Amino acid sequence: MTEITVVLPTYNEAENIAEAVSRITAALGAAPHEIIVADDDSPDLTWRKAQELAAQYPNLKVLRRTTDRGLYPAVMDGFAAASGKYLAVMDADLQHDEKILPAMLEKARAGAGLVIASRYTEGGGISGWNTTRLLISQTANRLAGMLLKRRSTDLMSGFFIVERAAFEKARPALKPKGFKILMDILQNLPDGTVVTEAGYVFRPRTAGESKISLKVAWQAAAGLGELSMGRVNFILLLVALGLFLLAAAGKILRLAGLW
Ligand SMILES: Nc1nc2c(ncn2[C@@H]2O[C@H](COP(=O)(O)OP(=O)(O)O)[C@@H](O)[C@H]2O)c(=O)[nH]1
Ligand SMILES: [Mg+2]
Questions:
Q1: pLDDT value at position 150?
Q2: Could you report the per-residue pLDDT of 218-241, keeping only the tens digit for each?
Q3: Which end of the chain has a smaller Cβ tally under 10 Å, C or N?
Q4: How far is the CA of 205 from the centre of ligand 2 (A)?
Q5: Residue 88, phi then psi, degrees to nearest 5
């Protein structure tokens, strides 16, 4: 029986996928696990590279997705194909520290319904970002936290483990659009679900490119409206606009070489 399924959403990660699969396999060691690559038909043929790797890793499955593209729907497809008792998601670009997976799994085994890998808790951090970029990310995170029923120190985290049973209960209320997956799951978990965190240091990307753009930042800001349990009002819209402007400022600073 598979204890844990790790879903890796990918878009143009051909240079990273082999290393990601190798590191995750080593980190999970003896825990019965499978890895599912949920690729959006990447032009760099990540899906083919992953299919080739499957010859070496019998527990590796590959989904080559051609419709309903996007990070969140890709993860949902991965979860739907998963057989584990625990469902994990992490990036395939080596920015997430796979070495904390065993500690996260241990917390899930001990009864947590959701274990969030966080950059903003004890033991957490971000390597390679300057103060401006950190400040923008933390402000966005705090603003989001103010609007949501359930909080986390890292609401934008793309690295977490959810217990299948808890996920199944949340699923009917989920709206798989954009990339707000953790926020959506967190808000829709059954009452009484134990949520815990584990700190890790977010690493710089060494190969491939980030897909997070202004468009995504805007989606995140707009998505908060839907997630805020009907408290959509003028103030909320102002905050969403603020988030967008912060992201835009970040982009401008980066273009100007100050980020
Ligand atoms: N399937 C799929 N994966 C995506 C998509 N956008 C990003 N990803 C993957 O999601 C992970 C995080 O994306 P990334 O661009 O690194 O975000 P960042 O770390 O915030 O810059 C990586 O493994 C990406 O390849 C998408 O539209 N579809
Ligand atoms: Mg990344």
A1: 84
A2: 666 666 555 554 554 556 666 767
A3: N
A4: 6
A5: -115, 150
